Amino acid sequence: MLEKLEFNITISAPKEKIWEVLWNPDSYKAWTNAFCEGSYLITDWKVGDKVHFLSPDGGGMYSVIEEKTENEFVAFKHIGEIKDKKELPLDAESKVWTGSRETYLLTQKEDGIELHVEMDTLDDYIDFFCNHFPDGLKKIKELAEK
Question: Is the per-residue pLDDT at 1 higher than 90?
């Protein structure tokens, strides 16, 4: 069963700078160290095209960009797993979470820009994300406010 997690942080920086920190290859690696050191992604950033979220060993997952409004919103629909940099066919385990979503929304608030993240995850990963995602957000804030 998938559970929806939500995370928020307010950042004193322009949306464009936060967006750059989120998705620039170097800063992406920096903030995703909270989950897996050396993480990176491969995509051309076009709606409907794939994204490969990868760890240094070539494992990870592949997704599709469902929606994107530059400097404001992106929605990923997760599809399946990657091993040795190759997309794996869906199996019983991955079919449980295929179609799950992860979104990033930047909204102007009185005291700065709010970064709001929503993600669907399996029960087994709730503690992991609740323990590590706030560290990733703190790193995004730190890099964006430099």
Answer: no
